[in-house]
Design brief:
single chain; 36% strand; Acyl_CoA_acyltransferase; Acetyltransferase; GNAT_dom
Length: 141
């Protein structure tokens, strides 16, 4: 058996993180017989300046859309931009053949926003600060 060393870091080498992803992806592809994962970005920019006003990043894989990050600039909140971004991400998920979507949000972020758009809570885990929780949600596409 090999001698190993374990390292814990908050500044991982991006190349090593990529090797972890590639190793897991190769394993999954071997079991499933194909790889269909695709990154996703939905971006809203100011038409004149090109300034980023909001966006969604995530990915699709194995019939699921994963919404990982959602951001809308403060001046654009409550103006419908978040709804447009979410609708575009969901539409792209459907176009890719996704049957469902998943995300998590934090209790002080926007769980009500997602619920108004048809998302359903399926789990909640307390986190810090006290009284805060991560809320896991899904939506049939």
């Amino acid at each position: 058996m090999r001698t190993t060393s374990i390292t814990v870091t908050d500044r991982p080498d991006p190349g090593l993180v990529e090797q972890i992803a590639e190793g897991l992806n190769a394993y999954n592809d071997e079991i499933i017989g194909h790889g269909d994962r695709l990154p996703l970005a939905v971006l809203a920019r100011d038409a004149e300046t090109g300034e980023l006003l909001g966006g969604i990043s995530g990915r699709s894989s194995l019939g699921l859309l994963f919404v990982e990050l959602v951001y809308v600039a403060k001046p654009c909140r409550s103006a419908g931009l978040g709804s447009q971004l979410l609708a575009a991400a969901e539409a792209e998920g459907r176009r890719r053949g996704c049957k469902a979507a998943v995300l998590y949000t934090i209790s002080f972020q926007a769980p009500g926003f997602y619920e108004r758009h048809g998302w359903t809570r399926f789990g909640e885990i307390p986190c810090l600060p006290p009284g805060t929780s991560r809320i896991f949600m899904s939506k049939t596409l």
